Amino acid sequence: MGLLCAKLRHCCCSCFLRFSTQSPPEAEEFQVLILGPAASGKTELGHRLSGLQRPEDDQEATNGVRCYNASISSEDLHRPAVKLKLTEVGGNTEMQRLWRHYYASSHALIYCFDLSTDPEHLQDTFNLLAESLKGTQLAGKPVLLAASRYCDGVQLYDVEYAFGLEQLASSCNCPLLICHMDEATDLQRGIRWLCRQLLARKTQLERRIRYDVNMQVWQRRKRSLLSSGKLAQVHRQRFRRQHRKLWPAVLGFGESTARPNTAPPTIFFVRSPQVENPKDN
Ligand SMILES: Nc1nc2c(ncn2[C@@H]2O[C@H](COP(=O)(O)OP(=O)(O)OP(=O)(O)O)[C@@H](O)[C@H]2O)c(=O)[nH]1
Ligand SMILES: [Mg+2]
């Protein structure tokens, strides 16, 4: 009996050890792009999601790119923990030209907009979103719309309906959700939704990113090859021109009497009647 107990204890201990030494499942990592017009709250959101306090003296516009890390615990999602690598690109007109360079390598988009602006500005904001989604490497990827500056009386579903955001999302095959970034619980709901979308589509998204990034590299290479090809062509043309100039000069020394290819087939004279019979008159 004592031997049996000892054996059982040994077995239980080894099982416990096996469980305790087993590392927890690794967090799934995703690249998320934060875009939106200037002063729409991107930097603010980046700080809120990463749990960092934004310094008082750091209120200026982003002239380039800012990166943040956000960890979403597994208890919230009932799945492996998720690490979001957030990349914010500045929103002014000059910075908007850089946006497309980040589409291919991103798993998802968080698009910020200022809810307190007038309808015309909001329309411009969503036109910009449509430009970023339609026919680009962001099409088909999850999109979270984050409304900054809570505005009394404006409901998010009204914004979604008035600006045709659902139609835009379905035309680009993008799962889309809209949330308030000023309300902590609503922002959490949005982020949890985004993480669930990312986990559910992980394999397809990774395959897509690999394809798009490889395509980008190949296109860059093709462009450089083409430009070097053009250079070689210029060199060849210069070489040919030199030949054309040199060849008649060499022939001109009299070593060859061959007629040029461009000469007429026969040489003939045309006599005028006056010259033929000058004594007839
Ligand atoms: N009250 C309030 N203020 C906000 C909110 N979001 C941003 N702000 C303020 O608006 C200003 C601009 O916000 P940013 O987060 O820097 O804007 P941004 O989108 O990063 O702008 P760019 O970097 O220029 O593209 C800052 O002073 C913020 O404190 C919000 O939701 N509520
Ligand atoms: Mg910013």
UniProtKB/TrEMBL annotation:
Mg(2+) binds at T43, T62. Pfam families: Arf. One of its GO terms (molecular function) is GTP binding. Keywords: GTP-binding, Lipoprotein, Magnesium, Metal-binding, Myristate, Nucleotide-binding. Signal peptide: none annotated. It comes from the Eukaryota. GTP binds at G36, P37, A38, A39, S40, G41, K42, T43, G91. PANTHER family: ADP-RIBOSYLATION FACTOR-LIKE PROTEIN 2-RELATED (PTHR45697). Belongs to the small GTPase superfamily. Arf family. This is Uncharacterized protein. It comes from Drosophila kikkawai. The lineage of its organism: Eukaryota, Metazoa, Ecdysozoa, Arthropoda, Hexapoda.
